[in-house]
Amino acid sequence: MMEVMISIIVLSFGLLGMGGLQLAALRSNQMSGNFSTAATLAREYTEIMRSNPTVSNIVTTTAGVNPYLFDSSSLTASTVNCVTATCTTANLATLQVKDWATRVQGQLPGGRAVVCRDTAPRNGDGSYTWSCNNTGTFVTVKIGWTDRRENVERGTTTLTATPLNPQLITIGYTGLSGL
User: Fold this and answer.
1) Are 147 and 163 in contact (CB under 8 A)?
2) Cα(168)–Cα(1) distance, rounded to whole angstroms?
3) Extents of the domains making up the chain
């Protein structure tokens, strides 16, 4: 009788361990899926910019001049309708940005994107930053999402509804002449 009781206890610990491993695997799978989605979206965005070099090659950082440089947390709805009206290349860029930013927010939990010209995308401690120094010729695509892993796995102590820092940063080349 005692041996049966001990074997049940050992079996119970084994099953609990297997459950924990399954949970860790699910979390890891979700994290890698988010990274894969973000990488695909970032690559796609640089291709979108390359398709409209007239606007994407504008290097000024004055607000509204180059619609491809934006922060999705402050993006406003576009009123341009290229189906019923004639669109300029700037109108097309505005529509592309709005569509892409909507997909970032829809495909990543709490998704946020910032696209700017930034030669220093890291803080002093090595973590990524949302802010941009608006210098350089290459475009920096910064994407972040709400990370639902455990605090220790994430490297932070709190979970917020919005991403604290970007989790993925890529540098894109829009086809500027002379580079």
Assistant:
1) yes
2) 57
3) 2-172
Joined tokens for residue 99: 């569509």
Rg of the chain (C-alpha set): 22
171 within 8 A of 45, measured Cβ to Cβ: no
**Tokens linked to 155:** 């490297």
Structure tokens at 48: 């979108």
Q: What is the rounded distance in angstroms from the CA atom of residue 51 to the CA atom of residue 100?
A: 14
Residues 104, 163, 79, 57: is their CA dihedral positive or negative? Answer: negative
- At 56 the pLDDT is 84
**This model's pTM is above 0.85:** no
Q: Which residues contact 54 (CB under 8 A, 6 or more apart)?
A: 89
For residues 73 and 113, what is the distance between their CA atoms, to the nearest angstrom?
A: 8
Query: Which H or E run contains 94?
Result: helix 89-107
Residues 85 and 90: their CA atoms lie apart, in Å, by 14
Per-residue pLDDT at 86: 85
16-41: pLDDT as tens digits: 888 888 887 887 788 889 999 999 99
